[in-house]
Write a structure and sequence with these properties.
The protein folds into three domains: 88 residues, Uridine Diphospho-n-acetylenolpyruvylglucosamine Reductase, domain 2 (2-Layer Sandwich); 112 residues, Uridine Diphospho-n-acetylenolpyruvylglucosamine Reductase, domain 3, CATH 3.30.465.10; 200 residues, Vanillyl-alcohol Oxidase, Chain A, domain 3. It is of the alpha+beta class. The chain has a seven-stranded antiparallel β-sheet. The chain starts with 6 loop residues before the first helix and ends in a 17-residue tail after the last helix. It is built from 15 helices and 20 strands. Bound molecules: flavin-adenine dinucleotide (FAD). The site of flavin-adenine dinucleotide (FAD) has 35 residues, from strand 3, helix 5 and strand 10. Its cofactor is FAD.
Length: 472
């Protein structure tokens, strides 16, 4: 059983910490701010919040938490909506003072500390004409996003984020700082690429980088809902016969002040405007109501969705996976469900639902057991991004999101696109701990349980969206 940290224990911990680690307790004027998360619904009243700045500082905290069986949470970018980076009464290790990024231009490698945000990585890399696969909203943390798999605009070309991690440094429950790679602690290296939230604090990631000296094309094409079927058909055709440089999202959202949602195609192409317009010609031919798109440096792309993903209010992410090619009638059903819900519940007006389209060849070329992330295949990940303000509606609105989540699984079960044995259907980073996850680790479940027993037998790291249990 995990225990809270009381004032006496906090004092004992403080005495053990180096001078660069700050420990905030409820008496501190900084306490309320230290609890803040992207979603107000993920705020929990911690017993103490520690801000380490060094690997040794993290190690001392983890060791203390293990020795005292403390309830422990690790915060990277703070975007978990299910509260997995928060604790009620326990100890938070907040990595936000560990955001350093270094670039090795010769080896084309990016090294980022475990508390870095994607903007830190994108901005540092582009200064050297480099880029890697990263989050599409650049204030998300590299920590949580990488450890669960990671999709981004460059996924068509280079795969998932984890496919580009070449090494990492992980603080495991007994306080050791382990280097992991294909040649060192390779079992833990395998485990952290998909199920990483369950194994330790990753204090450093090393990513493969790629030349990105030319601008890319990115933008929003907005349509009336009657175009939805044609849009989905165009996206299916485009991505069934694809070029890995392209990516798109089909997003249902209600513009501020509008009476009902509209359909947006968010488009990305790693090339110039002319090639992008040829690539997405079918979408342009569908006469969007509005086009806001253009060429920009790669590091600016992951800023463009930030205005749609502002912090504050109560939020919940739910994964909605559809088989590829996406059946347009399913997209229409989901759109209608959203339209009805927003009509009945105006407090949910900022809610969005998106379907993601990348060229799947690269992602699927890696077998589901090559890393611990088993959800690779002919599926389109999607997000139900619930947003509201009234805490009394937390359960009801989450239940509505889970209804769509369950419906998507049902559609796959009824289709001829059943997952192969061991293949997982849902991406754990787009979910919350109590969601209907269709086993996100698939074929890797048993091996992960064995590695959990090896590295974290006391289950100190117990707050992932998809938890790994120690076998009896
Ligand atoms: C607005 C928004 C946009 C998103 N866009 C994308 C996207 O483009 N692609 C994508 O794949 N996913 C995306 N996601 C999902 C995202 O991958 C998860 O929400 C992820 O958990 C966020 O990580 P974080 O570090 O910001 O969150 P946190 O809340 O800090 O952490 C989430 C989990 O990761 C753990 N964790 C964080 N850092 C570390 C670390 N260094 N070591 C060990 N454990 C750690 C925490 O303990 C917690 O369990 C998005 C989410 C949001 C809210």
């Amino acid at each position: 059983m995990r225990i809270p940290i009381d004032p006496a224990l906090a004092k004992e911990l403080e005495a053990k910490l180096d001078s660069t680690t700050e420990l905030i307790t409820p008496e501190s004027p900084k306490y309320e701010a230290s609890l803040s998360r992207w979603s107000d619904g993920a705020v929990k009243r911690a017993g103490a919040v520690a801000y380490p700045t060094t690997f040794d500082g993290v190690s001392a905290l983890v060791k203390f938490a293990s020795q005292h069986s403390l309830d422990l949470a690790v915060k990277g970018g703070g975007h978990s909506t299910g509260g997995t980076s928060s604790t009620t009464g326990g100890l938070v290790i907040d990595l936000s003072r560990m955001r350093r990024v270094a670039i090795d231009t010769e080896k084309k490698l990016i090294t980022a500390q475990g508390g870095a945000l994607w903007e830190d990585v994108d901005d540092a890399a582009i200064e050297h004409g480099l880029a890697t696969v990263g989050g599409t909203v650049n204030h998300t943390g590299v920590g949580g996003l990488t450890l669960g798999g990671g999709f981004g605009w460059l996924s068509g070309m280079y795969g998932m984020v984890i496919d580009n991690v070449v090494a990492a440094k992980v603080v495991v429950p007994d306080g050791r700082i382990l280097t992991v790679s294909d040649t060192e602690n390779s079992d833990l290296f395998w485990a952290i690429r998909g199920a990483g939230h369950n194994f330790g604090v990753t204090v450093e990631f090393t990513y493969r980088a790629y030349e990105q000296t030319t601008p890319v094309y990115f933008g929003f094409l907005t349509y009336t809902p009657d175009k939805l079927t044609a849009i989905v058909e165009a996206l299916n055709r485009r991505f069934d016969n694809s070029d890995p440089r392209g990516g798109a999202m089909c997003v249902f959202a209600q513009p501020p002040g509008a009476p009902s949602p509209v359909v947006n195609a968010v488009v990305f192409y790693n090339g110039n405007e002319k090639s992008a317009k040829e690539y997405f010609s079918e979408l342009f031919d569908l006469e969007p109501l509005n086009i806001a798109a253009g060429e920009m440096p790669y590091n600016q792309v992951n800023r463009q969705l930030n205005p749609l993903a502002r912090p504050g209010g109560r939020k919940s992410l739910k994964v909605a996976t559809l088989a590829s090619p996406v059946r347009p009638e399913y997209a229409v059903t989901i759109f209608e469900m959203l339209m009805e819900q927003l009509k009945e519940e105006p407090d949910m007006a900022s809610t969005f639902i998106s379907m993601e389209f990348y060229d799947l060849a690269k992602i699927s070329s890696i077998p589901p057991d090559a890393t611990s992330c088993a959800n690779r295949g002919a599926y389109r990940p999607g997000t139900i991004g619930l947003s509201w303000t009234d805490p009394a509606k937390d359960d009801a609105f989450r239940a509505w999101g889970r209804k769509i989540q369950a419906q998507c699984i049902e559609w796959i079960k009824q289709s001829d696109k059943l997952p192969s044995p061991g293949q997982a259907l849902q991406y754990a980073n787009y979910a919350e701990p109590d969601d209907v996850l269709n086993d996100p680790f698939g074929v890797n479940k048993q091996k992960l349980a064995e590695l959990k027993a090896k590295y974290d037998p006391q289950c100190i790291f117990d707050k992932a969206n998809a938890r790994i249990e120690v076998p009896n």
